[in-house]
Amino acid sequence: MDDHDSLSRLLALNRQTPGVPREFVPTDFPDDVVRATKVFGSPVRLAILRALQDGPIRQQDLIDAVGIAYSTFRTNIAELLEAGAVQVVDPQARRGRQPISYVIALPEVRRLGAALLAWATESNNNQ
User: Fold this and answer.
1) Which of 21, 61, 63, 89 could pair covalently with 101 via S-S, beta carbons 3.0-4.6 A apart?
2) Full set of structural domains in the chain with CATH
3) Other CB atoms closer than 10 Å to residue 65's CB: what's the count?
């Protein structure tokens, strides 16, 4: 399932939510804006990114640093990996018993942040 399908399902749910007028549910988000909201739209994902800002961290150390359950970590790290904001340091570690380490993909995080800011600025100027 791609980002567009996920967004479409979310928007469909929002349209069905009582009290949310249909005209307030935009459907024309640029792909980078959707990806940026996945990265920056969660306090847990922001905490993971903050913990990674000093360099690569082993998975268990990252979970401990953020202070979340493993299941919560898996859900959120999957979103960050899918968005390209985080990378596995050694992809071979996934297959073996070596500890998995993650690193922030700073150029992609900066690019997504800039895309979100540009979109927000453009949207604000059009009002």
Assistant:
1) 89
2) 30-125 (1.10.10.10)
3) 14
Tokens read off for 80: 């960050």
Read off the pTM.
0.70
Query: Mind listing the pLDDT tens digit of every residue in the chain (127 residues)?
Result: 444 455 555 445 444 444 545 554 456 778 888 888 888 989 999 999 999 998 999 999 999 999 999 999 999 999 999 999 999 998 776 666 778 999 999 999 999 999 888 988 886 666 6
Cα separation, 55 vs 104, whole angstroms? 7
- Token output for 9: 């399902």
Residue matched to tokens 């690019």: 111
How far apart, in whole angstroms, are the C-alpha atoms of residue 107 and residue 69?
28
Q: Which of these, 12, 54, 33, lies nearest to 123 by C-alpha position? A: 33
Contacting residues for 100 by C-beta, under 8 A, at least 6 apart: 58, 59, 88, 89, 90, 93, 94
